[in-house]
Write a structure and sequence with these properties.
With 179 residues, the protein is α/β, with parallel strands linked by helices. Helices cover 26% and strands 21% of the residues. The longest helix has 11 residues.
Length: 179
């Protein structure tokens, strides 16, 4: 069921903090360059660093990739939903600020609280760890509130049991960039 208030907040350029598999995440609309810039400023993050977009299902990625080929869909879904990020060839509709070397980083998480948020907003979000650049990731709601209170909408919850960020793999070459 769509949470219209949260959806409108994100579409209007708002940023959320939310629990993920391994830490609190910071997310915004991948379609809002203004929100992406704000996210980078909050994190003291270089604007040229790549971002991952997450979605509840493959259909939410229709504006990013052309996954019409049945074998490509099957290959993507071997690791999804899960703690795995694919670098996939971006299509013409992909936001330019998310593309690096003609590829876009995408993930469908299996972590239920994260999936519920994605289903409730009805669209993908751009996601990064909730921390200042170069600092340790935030692991609980209290620390998230201390760091970003009043700057982002913080969604309560507990993080998952994964100790490290998702793996990152190039879809076409199979090269693993982060394991």
């Amino acid at each position: 069921m769509i949470n219209h208030r949260l959806r409108r907040f994100i579409i209007d350029g708002g940023i959320i903090a939310y629990p993920t598999e391994s830490c609190f995440g910071l997310g915004c609309s991948p379609f809002s360059y203004k929100a992406i810039k704000k996210l980078n400023v909050l994190k003291n993050r270089a604007k040229n660093k790549n971002l991952i977009s997450i979605a509840a299902n493959l259909e939410q990625f229709d504006k990013f990739i052309d996954a019409n080929n049945v074998s490509d869909k099957k290959k993507l879904l071997i690791k999804w939903p899960g703690h795995h990020t694919w670098l996939v060839k971006a299509n013409q509709k992909s936001p330019k600020w998310l593309i690096s070397s003609n590829k876009i980083a995408l993930r469908i998480p299996s972590f239920i609280p994260c999936r519920k948020i994605l289903l409730s907003v009805g669209q993908p979000i751009t996601s990064t760890s909730l921390n200042k650049s170069g600092k340790r990731s935030i692991k609980n709601f209290r620390d998230a509130s201390r760091l970003f209170h009043g700057k982002v909408k913080i969604i309560r919850g507990r993080i998952g049991k994964n100790k490290k960020p998702s793996s990152i793999q190039d879809f076409s070459t199979g090269i693993i960039y982060r394991d």
